[in-house]
Give the backbone structure.
Amino acid sequence: MVNRHRGEVELRAGDKVYTLCLTLGALAHLESVYGGEDILSLADRFSRGHLTSADALNLLEAGLKGGGHEYVDLDLESMSFEGGVASLIRTLADLLRVTFGGSDAAGIEAAEANINRPEEGGEDLPPFPGSPS
């Protein structure tokens, strides 16, 4: 069972349940992955509303590491998530929220909400699998 007061969230992937947590070590790992950017810069980066698939993979890896999982034994790139990618994005937003506080995860939620926004002169993008259209 996860403890949100410790910054833990639950992720269901395949037939397993994982605990994600951005511990100090996991945050240091993220800083390293992003070329030494400090944690406040990373929090700002994630709050802008543009989350790439590489960002999601990096957050997932760090969260698994902080949650005590041997992510090197997992095939993260082919992992399937209960509720699809939209559920993963919501879980990562929740992870950032319990780590940094309410407003720092708003960008990821905005990114998910913006998925259906038409680009200038373009068409609506399809929704994430499992999300309401």
Notes: The beta strands are 8-13, 16-21. Helices lie at 24-33, 39-46, 53-66, 84-100, 106-114.
